[in-house]
């Protein structure tokens, strides 16, 4: 067997399982793929593993790197089994097999035939057709005649062996060996750096992750490229940016043959191409990692007849492989060997200006196409965007270098949608910086307006800041941009009343929403809707306007729900859903349905809410949109928290945090940390809860998110106060709790009236009570009752549940003969936790001071009594729409 890989074998668990299953079914296994992916190492590891498990009693390894035939296989196998005496003739396949098969039945053996590409046509040791057929015949007979006594694993760069018996099907399984799993690739890189004595700080994770991805997690490439860090003047950034120039330096002098250098490995494959094919190959130099076949042909202008020969030649040489990126996308994506394009850029003709111009312009069109397709067919669009992103980013760089500022800004805006959805915050920041870098501008607009590039740059930076939780930075950019727009007369491009005006008002509403000002956000959304409806009236065919109206209504629904206006919110969500259905916008429909789930949760319709969130998790997971998936997991966790299912709540919230952190959403992860703190507190784990709350608070302090800080300050104050009351924390911590609550109250006082200020007032009341200040406690509770009762959502919940009862209790106040009929009902309410029997009896007796009646009641009990008083006095506001 070959020696173990120098840096150990890891990962490939799925491949090993597939190999084992295929061998158990009596199939020949062909491992194929690019050179250097570890086919030989995988075959050897499978042999060792299956011998250890007892499936085989031994393994025989035969290398074809320098040639070989059927006799070589039969002879080596005979030596391994101990039957190669003077009478054994490896050249007589029939007689040799007659000796080998009984020995294999007695001693089951796994045969590994390695590097078979060498004996294929065009290989270094190509066999004549007859001898190659004899080799395949011998391998098939060994796998079948011994009745399971001989398992066969083949490795080859080229999967086309030219024999139907070895084609994938009942007799054979083909398993492509691609790049490693990202985590396994990172582990390999870490071991390599350690063994070479390279300081791991010289390979920071974000830059290392990007380089490994660029290398397609290719094992040989990882080993040879990272060795270059032994030169202390090199950095990962320099390696990434100057990869083609540095390619000759990616070597390992301790190795021989194809594995000695990346160029040696690649040139071995290139030798199989004709001179004419090599000349055409240089046209692939602009691409990054591969390309969709239609784009490749449009850019390279390779004639159809020539491509019909070149593509199969490249596939057989293991330089490209065709992938279907999505079942609805018929055009294949041609994945390049990770070193092919950098290698080609060193060749004459690679810098052809016409080629580069076609490349950049084509991918600018692709970016626009994908942006528009994302609304209608998001799964297909995102699958394409993910594989084409390296090309899209390179094309953006070329458009900027060409001075096409507006086109580049448009392209960056299109890419931002995907990078943001994928959670690639670092990459998004890089392209924003690219667009912002000073280059020769296109010049001011003829009417004195600011350019499209300026608008897209400023709105893009604002949206990025908002997504990472930097509300102040977002608000500053949005308000400045809005002022520029409103200073321009109506009818001016990007001026007052334009679509850009509507978009900026929408963005401003999001800033207010994130900053804890839902009423102000509602006003901005309504203003944006007014602008948008005027635009739609002028041009009803403009689908972008109609789609944004659906988005706006969904966001308005969130704000209405946050303010407790649940009836209005439901109506708004349904209007949004209908618009998205009319546009066949699958993602918009998923968002609206998830929002209806949130509404169901507020109304305690937990089964419906769970179903909605699970559907959202599946949908956004399929889209690979981590932030939206994280939000759905978060909401599902909140439902389980309300149901007091602590284990499920914690599981869902932890999944949410992982996705938020992967997406670089610090604010979202911190909010979920706070919810994990609440789960820990309710489950009786106070010290753990405090750690979660403080972690969340620290993040929000760094982000300067006042509304989110207030939530965590409130949580901490409540926790400490409750633990002191229970005797588990010292009374000296009451002062700390009071300071936290005071700080929270100060923040909430500057927010809208819907910040649940009553929860903080209740905490301060409890602290004052524990400190013996009864007057202060009474004052805080009075104010808490008033703010709780003023919140429309609380009134909506009471009216929905007790609407008829409220009217009957009010009527009974003027009809004493009815009192006895209600006493059993009052007793049932008391047993259910609604402690209103005594206040209602006092109300029937003529008492009308709500605060006196509500003394000692919680917010919901006090509000129920207030609603009876209001109904009796005829001062109740109209009931909320169901």
Automatic annotation (TrEMBL):
<feature type="repeat" description="TPR">
    <location>
        <begin position="630"/>
        <end position="663"/>
    </location>
</feature>
<dbReference type="Pfam" id="PF13424">
    <property type="entry name" value="TPR_12"/>
</dbReference>
<dbReference type="InterPro" id="IPR011990">
    <property type="entry name" value="TPR-like_helical_dom_sf"/>
</dbReference>
<dbReference type="InterPro" id="IPR019734">
    <property type="entry name" value="TPR_rpt"/>
</dbReference>
<protein>
    <recommendedName>
        <fullName>AAA+ ATPase domain-containing protein</fullName>
    </recommendedName>
</protein>
<dbReference type="GO" id="GO:0043531">
    <property type="term" value="F:ADP binding"/>
</dbReference>
<dbReference type="InterPro" id="IPR049945">
    <property type="entry name" value="AAA_22"/>
</dbReference>
<dbReference type="InterPro" id="IPR003593">
    <property type="entry name" value="AAA+_ATPase"/>
</dbReference>
<keyword id="KW-0802">TPR repeat</keyword>
<dbReference type="Pfam" id="PF13176">
    <property type="entry name" value="TPR_7"/>
</dbReference>
<dbReference type="InterPro" id="IPR027417">
    <property type="entry name" value="P-loop_NTPase"/>
</dbReference>
<dbReference type="Pfam" id="PF13401">
    <property type="entry name" value="AAA_22"/>
</dbReference>
<feature type="domain" description="AAA+ ATPase">
    <location>
        <begin position="25"/>
        <end position="202"/>
    </location>
</feature>
């Amino acid at each position: 067997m070959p020696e173990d890989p120098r840096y150990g074998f890891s990962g490939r668990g799925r491949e090993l399982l597939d190999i084992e299953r295929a061998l158990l079914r009596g199939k020949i296994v062909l491992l194929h793929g690019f050179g250097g992916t570890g086919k030989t190492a995988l075959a050897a590891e499978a042999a060792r593993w299956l011998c250890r498990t007892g499936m085989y009693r031994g393994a025989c390894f035969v290398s074809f790197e320098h040639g070989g035939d059927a006799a070589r296989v039969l002879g080596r196998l005979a030596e391994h089994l101990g039957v190669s005496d003077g009478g054994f003739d490896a050249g007589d396949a029939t007689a040799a097999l007659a000796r080998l098969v009984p020995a294999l039945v007695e001693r089951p053996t796994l045969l590994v035939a390695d590097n078979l590409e060498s004996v294929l046509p065009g290989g270094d040791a190509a066999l004549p057709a007859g001898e190659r057929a004899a080799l395949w015949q011998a391998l098939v007979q060994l796998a079948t005649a011994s009745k399971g006594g001989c398992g066969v694993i083949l490795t080859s760069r080229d999967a086309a062996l030219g024999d139907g018996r070895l084609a994938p099907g009942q007799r054979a399984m083909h398993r492509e060996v691609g790049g490693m799993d990202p985590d396994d690739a990172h582990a390999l890189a870490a071991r390599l750096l350690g063994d070479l004595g390279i300081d791991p700080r010289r390979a920071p994770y974000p830059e290392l992750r990007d380089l490994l991805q660029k290398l397609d997690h290719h094992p040989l490439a990882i080993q040879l490229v990272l060795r270059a860090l032994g030169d202390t003047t090199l950095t990962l950034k320099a390696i990434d940016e100057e990869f083609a120039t540095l390619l000759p330096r990616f070597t390992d002098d301790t190795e021989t043959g194809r594995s000695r250098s990346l160029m040696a490995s690649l040139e071995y494959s290139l030798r199989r191409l004709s001179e004419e094919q090599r000349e055409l190959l240089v046209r692939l130099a602009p691409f990054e990692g591969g390309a969709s076949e239609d784009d490749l042909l449009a850019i390279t202008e390779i004639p159809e007849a020539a491509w019909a020969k070149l593509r199969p030649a490249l596939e057989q040489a293991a330089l490209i492989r065709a992938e279907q990126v999505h079942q609805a996308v018929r055009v294949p994506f041609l994945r390049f060997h990770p070193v092919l394009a950098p290698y080609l850029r060193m060749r004459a003709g690679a810098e052809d200006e016409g080629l580069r111009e076609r490349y950049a312009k084509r991918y600018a069109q692709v970016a626009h196409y994908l942006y528009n397709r994302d609304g209608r067919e998001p799964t297909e669009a995102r699958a394409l965007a993910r594989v084409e992103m390296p090309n899209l980013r390179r094309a953006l760089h070329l458009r900027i270098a060409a001075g096409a500022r507006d086109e580049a800004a448009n392209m960056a805006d299109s890419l931002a949608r995907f990078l943001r959805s994928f959670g690639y915050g670092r990459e998004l920041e890089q392209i924003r910086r690219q667009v912002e870098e000073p280059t020769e501008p296109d010049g001011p607009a003829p009417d004195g307006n600011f350019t499209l590039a300026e608008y897209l740059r400023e709105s893009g930076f604002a949206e990025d800041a908002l997504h990472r939780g930097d509300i102040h930075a977002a608000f500053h950019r949005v308000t400045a941009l809005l002022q520029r727009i409103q200073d321009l007369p109506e009818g001016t491009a990007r001026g007052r009343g334009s679509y850009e005006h509507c978009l900026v008002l929408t963005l401003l509403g999001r800033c207010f929403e994130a900053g804890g000002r839902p009423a102000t956000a509602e006003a901005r959304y309504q203003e944006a809707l007014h602008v948008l409806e005027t635009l739609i009236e002028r041009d009803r065919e403009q689908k972008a306007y109609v789609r944004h109206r659906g988005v706006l209504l969904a966001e308005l629904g969130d704000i209405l729900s946050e303010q407790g206006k649940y009836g209005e919110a439901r109506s708004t969500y349904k209007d949004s859903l209908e618009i998205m259905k009319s546009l066949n916008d699958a993602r918009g429909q998923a968002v609206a349905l998830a929002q209806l789930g949130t509404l169901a949760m507020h109304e305690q319709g937990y089964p419906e809410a769970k179903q909605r969130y699970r559907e959202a998790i599946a949908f956004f997971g399929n889209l690979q949109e981590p932030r939206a998936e994280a939000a759905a997991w978060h909401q599902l966790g909140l439902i389980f928290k309300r149901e007091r299912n602590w284990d499920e709540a914690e599981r869902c919230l932890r999944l949410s945090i992982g996705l938020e952190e992967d997406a670089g959403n610090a604010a979202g992860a911190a909010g979920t940390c706070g919810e994990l703190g609440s789960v820990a507190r309710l489950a009786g784990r106070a010290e753990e809860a405090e750690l979660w709350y403080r972690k969340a608070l620290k993040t929000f302090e760094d982000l300067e998110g006042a509304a989110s800080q207030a939530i965590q300050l409130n949580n901490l104050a409540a926790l400490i106060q409750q633990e002191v009351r229970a005797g588990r924390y010292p009374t000296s911590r009451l002062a700390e709790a009071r300071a936290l609550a005071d700080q929270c109250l100060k923040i909430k006082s500057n927010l809208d009236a819907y910040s649940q200020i009553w929860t903080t007032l209740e905490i301060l009341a409890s602290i004052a009570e524990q400190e013996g200040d009864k007057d202060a406690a009474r004052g805080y509770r009075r104010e808490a009752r008033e703010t709780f009762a003023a919140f429309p959502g609380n009134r909506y919940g009471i009216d929905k549940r007790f609407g008829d009862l409220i009217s009957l209790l009010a009527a009974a106040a003027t009809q004493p003969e009815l009192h006895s009929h209600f006493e059993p009902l009052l007793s049932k309410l008391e047993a259910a936790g609604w402690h209103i029997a005594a206040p209602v009896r006092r109300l029937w007796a003529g008492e009308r001071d709500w605060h006196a009646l509500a003394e000692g009641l919680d917010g919901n009990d006090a509000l129920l009594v207030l609603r009876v008083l209001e109904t009796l006095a005829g001062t109740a506001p109209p009931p909320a729409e169901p």
